Amino acid sequence: MEACATAHHWARTLAAIGHEVRLIAPKFVKPYVKNQKNDMADAEAIAEAGSRPTMRFVEVKTPEQQGLGMIFRLRDLLVGERTQLINALRGHLAEFGLVTGKGRENVDKLRAILEPGAGSDDLPAVICQMAQLCFDQIDGLSQRITELDTQIAFASKRSWPSARLQEMPGVGPVTAMAAFAPPMDSFRQGRDFSARAKFSPPPPGSGGGSEQRSLRPPSTRSPVSV
Fold it and tell me: In angstroms, rounded to a whole number, what is the distance separating the alpha carbons of residues 164 and 175?
């Protein structure tokens, strides 16, 4: 089957009654679709893609893995909403000469500017009211994001692979749990897992891509033994 919406649920259901289920990523099915896309063409493309000897299949996710994925997707949604709200607030207040830098760390600066006696008393009352509405929404979103971060951190402590990943510099609970990968024996080598978890850069493409593999200039220092 194509690994689209509800595919993992149906894969588990069919596997429970004795079927061998293989899921194919939609990007691997698309090249085999002929003419106009419809159910018949999709079924033919899935069958053709599944017959390829080098085809890579998607591991069927457990309900726990899908639940963890839902936490991450909701977190991304809330972070996006908060960023959108902060940018909207900055844009509205900039029309009145109240300008701050980008980023949520500057929200408190806007909050301080709008405090009574801070030099914004000549603004219409509706401006302060609408800004306070935005501040309340931003604070609410930040609180929910913090709650999701707490759930992720708690789940990372119960997972041995994520706990081991966090021993690497720069890898925290969110990055370590974002992989929620299938069993390690489903990967041919460590490089495949690193690519899936986005820990390593994608392989260079053709047409000069190999020349852009390194963006750093060659070092002129002599090698140092550590």
Answer: 12
Collapse the DSSP code of 117 into the 3-class scheme (helix H, G, I; strand E, B; otherwise coil) and give the result.
coil
DSSP 3-state of 72: helix
- For residue 34, the tally of other CB atoms under 10 A from its CB is 10
| AA identity, residue 24 | I
Give the amino acid at 8: H
Collect all residues with Cβ–Cβ distance below 8 Å to 81 and sequence separation of at least 6.
Answer: 141
Q: DSSP string spanning 188-224? A: SSHHHHHHHTT-SPPPP-SSSGGGGS--SPPP-SPP-
pTM: 0.69
CA torsion 81-84-86-91 (nearest 10°) is: -160
What confidence category does residue 207 fall into, taking pLDDT thresholds of 50, 70 and 90?
low
